[in-house]
Amino acid sequence: MAEVNQAGGCAHPIRLQGVVLDRVNGELVDSGILVPCKDRRAAVCPSCSRLYQADAWQLVAAGIRGGKGVSPDVVDHPQLFVTLTAPSFGPVHSRSRLAGSDRPCRPRRGGGTCAHGLPVSCHRRHAEGDPLLGEPLCAACFDYRGAVLWNAHLPRLWERTSLELYREVARVRHMSTRELRGVARLSYMKVVEFQRRGLVHLHLVIRADGKDGPSVPPPPWIDAAALMDAVTSAVTRAGVAVPVVSGTRLTRASWGVEHDLRVLAPGDDGDSTAIAAYVAKYATKTADGSPWLAHPIRSAAQMERLELRPHILRLVRAAWILGQRKDLGSLRLQAHAHTLGYTGQFSSKSLRFSTTFGVLRGARVLHVKSALAEPGETDGRPDYDGAWRYAGRGYVHAEAYRLADSLFEASSRAPRHLDTTSTTTSTSS
Ligand SMILES: [Zn+2]
Ligand SMILES: [Zn+2]
Ligand SMILES: [Zn+2]
Q1: Which ligand is nearest to the Cα of residue 138, counting in written order?
Q2: Phi and psi (nearest 5°) for 80?
Q3: For the range 314-319, what are the long-range contacts, defined as Cβ-Cβ under 8 Å and sequence gap of 24 or more?
Q4: 143 alpha carbon to ligand 3 midpoint, in Å?
Q5: Which of the ligands is closest to the CA of residue 131?
C-alpha cells in the first residue's frame, strides 16, 4: 500500500535511486522512490492517463471559457470547434445512423463485385462493437500505402492549413498575413483521433484573439462567421505534395470532403464542458486503443507478433515496408509504424491558446503540499527534485500491481465528474 501510494496508483511506476535528506534524523541516506510513469495512454497506465485526461480537459476548458491564468474575456472571442477528416482510401464497413436508427453499411444499387471478385456493397446494419467495423470491403482494393503516406503528411498538411487560414482571414480585408498578425492572432488546440479505418482525424478548437493574446479582443470584423468562411476556404485549398510511390495514387495530401464546423456559443458552459471532455478523451488513446501499439516497433519479427485487427496490421506492415525506402527517409516511417505512419503529436496547442500541462502539474504539486497538516509532514512521497537516477521499472512487491489495479477499479466505479476539483483530488486518492 505504501508503494502504491508513493507512485500515485500508477500501473507501471518508475524506480529512482538517490541520496536524500532523512527528515527525522537529518542524515543523508541512499534511498529509492517510486514515481508515476505519467504515460498519457489509457492502454498503458489507466491511472496516469486519467490524470492526463483531466489536465487536457482543464487545458481545453480554460482556452474556451478562461480560468487557470487565461483571461475570462476569451468567452467573447469568436471560437469554432472543427473536425477535419482524411479522404477515402477504399470503402470500409461503417456504422451509419439516421434519426437514431442503424442504416445499411454501404448499399449499392445493382451490387456488383470489385476486380478481386468481392462485393462492393454491404447491406448489413453493423452494431457498435462489430469486429467488421473499419475493415475494408476488399483489402486488395484498399490503398494501404496511400493511407500511411497521408497520415505521415498530416503534420505538414496542418501547418499549411494554418498558414492558409491566416491568409484567408487577411484576404477579406486585402491585408497581408503579416499585417493581420499585427492586429490579430489565431490560437488553437488540436487533438488527433485514429478512426477505425486507421486514418487520422483532427479535432480543433480555434479562437481569434487580438495581437496580444487572450486578454485582447480581435478586430470586430473577425467574427465567428468570418472565421468559419476562412476555415472552409483554408481547408479546401490546403495540400502538400507526397513523393511518388508505386502502388498508390496519392500524390498530394489534402483533407477529405467531410468536415464539421461549429461556432461555440459565447459563455455556453454546456458547450465548453462537452467539447473539453470530447477532446480530452482522444488525448489518451493509442492508434487502435490497444497496448500493442503503445510503443515503437523494433523489428519485423516483433511486428508479426502484434495481436491486431487484420486491417490495422496491414497498415503497420505498409508503414514498415515504406520505411525501408531511402527517398522516404525523412518521414521515419518505421519509427512511426505503431502510429500507422502518423509523425506528429497526439495533442498540441498554439502558445497562447491556454495554460500548459507543466503549469497544471506544478499547481497540483503545490496544492497537495499545502494540504498537508504539519510543515515537514509528507504524504509518503518524498520530494524528488534532487539528483535521482533511473533504477528500473515497476513495483518492488508483486502484490502492489493488483492493489493499484483494484484501487483504480474502485475509483472508476465511484461517481466522478471532470470538474475543477478532480485533478487535485485524484493525486491524493
Ligand atoms: Zn502510470
Ligand atoms: Zn458493412
Ligand atoms: Zn477488390
Answers
A1: 3
A2: -125, 150
A3: 314/139, 314/142, 314/144, 315/144, 315/147, 315/148, 315/198, 315/340, 315/341, 316/340, 317/144, 318/144, 318/145, 318/147, 318/148, 319/148, 319/152
A4: 10
A5: 2
* Residue reference for cell 453499411: 105
Helix (H) or strand (E) holding 93: none
Burial of 278 (0-12, 13-18, 19+ CB in 10 A): middle
Burial class (CB in 10 A: 0-12, 13-18, 19+), 128: exposed
Three-class SS of residue 214? coil
Distance 38 CA to ligand 1 centre (A): 5
Strand 79-84, strand 239-241: pairing: unpaired
Contact 32, 16 (CB under 8 A): yes
Q: How far apart are CA 183 and CA 167, in angstroms?
A: 14
Rounded Cα distance, 267 and 166, in Å = 25
Instruction: Characterize the bridge pairing of strands 252-254 and 101-103.
Output: unpaired
CA of 10 to the centre of ligand 1 (A): 4
d(CA 249, CA 319): 16
CA 395–ligand 1 middle distance (angstroms): 11
Using alpha carbons, select from 84, 212, 229, 210 the residue that is nearest to residue 171: 229
Using CA atoms, how far apart are residues 251 and 143, in angstroms rounded to an integer?
Answer: 13
User: Residue 58: what residue type?
Assistant: Q
Distance 142 CA to ligand 3 centre (A): 8
Residue with cell 463485385: 113
Can you list the alpha helix ranges (DSSP code H) found in 175-329? 177-181, 224-237, 269-282, 300-304, 310-322
Q: Which ligand is nearest to the CA of 139?
A: 3
Q: What is the DSSP letter of 419?
A: S
Phi then psi for 84, rounded to 5 degrees?
Answer: -110, 135
Question: What does the DSSP 8-state code read for residue 365?
Answer: H
**Ligand 1 centroid to 342 CA: how many Å?**
24
**pLDDT averaged over 10-residue windows placed end to end, the chain, 429 residues:** 89 87 74 87 90 91 92 94 96 86 86 92 91 95 97 97 96 94 95 94 95 94 96 96 93 94 84 87 86 92 93 97 95 96 90 92 84 58 66 91 89 55 33
**How far, in Å, from the CA of 161 to the mean position of ligand 2?**
33
